[in-house]
Amino acid sequence: MSNYVLFQMWEPYRQSLIKSHQFYVEQARKRVLSQFENLEQEADKAGEEWLEQSSDRFDPDRHDPGDFYEAAHDFSIEFYQLLSDMRDQTRLSVTAGMFHEWDKKLRDWLVREIQHWHHGDTVPAKVWSADFGKIADLLESFGWKLRSTDYFKTLDACRVVVNVYKHGDGPSLKDLKQHYPEYLDDPLKGVRPSWSEKLVNHTHLKVTDDQFQAFSDAIIAFWRDVPENVSGGEEQVPDWFEKAILSDRAVKR
Predict the structure, then answer these.
(1) What are the start-end ranges of the H helices in the chain?
(2) Residue 3 CB neighbours (<10 A)
């Protein structure tokens, strides 16, 4: 490849990507996640409503009032737990949407830039289908030391979290246990015997509000860090990318 600009990040486009991401996060907090801010109060109210609705079944000659209050308390606890689980699942869903949007916009930008200097269908298809590691390899081959940045590990953790959320038990869960166990809400963490590690599964997946914010910050840091111009020279691109280019060239012949 000759030494000329292969990828260019137009500053207004960079800012539009960041603003779009920030809008998603702000509105997700305002319109979705904010609904789970008062779980204890809602649970108490649910218990009171249960007690009120059950009052017509109360017979002072046969029932102990304490039993009804205890049942209302149990209902309140169950309601709190179910709502808490829904909050955690909703935050995971919002996290997945945020990550997928960033991932799609990254690949879309790469493909559009590639199409300025390369024509063919194989390369775009490979960019869209390549896993995150291969995309990182491609970016690094042009001199951007992505893996050495502070935010790369956080982005990779987000990727693994989203995969576990989507697929459940599988290879990504193994990666999460090994590299990012902080996203598994294990009440026996630190005291669990080694033989019981297999009991930790996708149902323990959890992203806290602080972790969600860290994922968001990493995406912003990534967009801010994209070089304005990436030039090609004598770099050694990944095999998958080189083969895709050669495939397209062979078709043109």
Answers:
(1) 11-31, 39-53, 65-114, 122-129, 132-141, 152-167, 171-179, 209-225, 239-252
(2) 10
Whether 212 is in a domain gets the answer yes
Integer distance in angstroms from the first to the last C-alpha of the chain? 18
Residue 223 belongs to some domain of the structure: yes
CA distance linking residue 158 with residue 174, whole number of Å: 15
Phi–psi pair at 119, nearest 5 degrees: -120, 135
Question: What's the average model confidence in pLDDT over 246-252?
Answer: 89
Examine the pLDDT at 66 and tell me if it is beyond 70. Answer: no
Sign of CA dihedral 135, 141, 143, 148: positive
Q: Is 248 helix (H, G, I), strand (E, B) or coil?
A: helix
pLDDT at position 102 is: 98
Closest CA relative to residue 49, chosen from 79, 72, 15, 23: 72
What confidence score (pLDDT) does residue 88 get?
95
Tokens 């009171």 appear where?
48
State yes or no: pLDDT of 11 exceeds 80: yes
248 found inside a domain: yes
Range of the structural domain that residue 211 is part of: 7-35+93-252
SS3 235: coil
What's the full length of the chain, in residues? 253
Count the domains in the chain: 1
> CA dist 238 to 78, 119, 162, 202, 245, Å?
53, 18, 26, 33, 11
pLDDT tens digits along 85-141: 999 999 999 999 999 999 999 999 999 999 999 999 999 999 999 999 999 999 999
| pLDDT score at 188 | 66
Q: Is residue 229 part of a domain?
A: yes
